[in-house]
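ok so for the tutorial part 2 we go from a plain amino acid sequence to predicted structure tokens. step 1 is just haveing the sequence, like this:
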Amino acid sequence: MSATSGAGAAPDPLAGLRQRVRELIVRSGRSQREFADLLGLEPSKLSKSLKGTRRLAADELIRIAEVAGVTVNWLLHGSDDAATVVAVPPRDRSPAPAAERGTERAAGAERRRQIIEAAHRLIAVHGYHSVRTVDIARACGTSSATIHYHFPALRDLLDEALRSAAKQAFDRQVAVLHTVPCARTRLYRLIELQLPYPGLLRREWSIWLQVWTESALNPQLRDLHAAHYQRWHDTIARTLREGIEAGQFREFDVEAMTMRLTALIDGLGIQVMTGRPGRTVEAMRETLREFVATAIEGGTQP
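step 2 — the prediction. this is what the tokens look like for a chain of 302 residues:
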């Protein structure tokens, strides 16, 4: 008898994930093949994943969450604020699972998602104050009237694009790290996830640079930034605390060390993004790894 069948068999930890994906497909109003196409995933791969003969990759979990308007944490655990290796999101900002979206039709939800994604890309490339409604409409292949239908004020759309950027960052952390029990390995992977490589990560850094600037002037955006930055802080602090408990890191003040490490990541990232000579992604990685090895793992503090 196999380990996964018969009396006393261990429960399948991914059964809930597969069931939730099936529910999202039904609620999307699409066939399984159409949903796979929307994800950019081979239909046969999605079929195997839903049968349990193939595991969904981290990037596939992230894409499903994006398309369906849920969090990766909800996909994996059935709750936005389930305990995991990544700190839970601010409760009042958590995206609702598709099952709770009520009056939104699938087509309208899809159009809304497309608009937010287009605004996100345009803000990253052109800047928060340079993006116009007509630019977003053109990028979506729709009209300005459609944009205003979903987002009556441009500021509402731009702020939602910033919230989307924060959601994507933490979705990626949950998707990549939920199978990594080792705190030391997790910390190094968290660092990798923060390096502004060309492409998605560099666009996210562009968004956050603008959030920091706007937060200095806009109290509403300041609250949004503070809530999501606290989650990043808590994720690092949790990882450091678990590393100390496991004997992987030396003893130190976790809050103080978290502040040092996040400040170092922010400062180096800004220098890379603004093109300071000699400040490359590779140099940023090397500096951060050296800091972890010396200040956190037990060498001489810098």
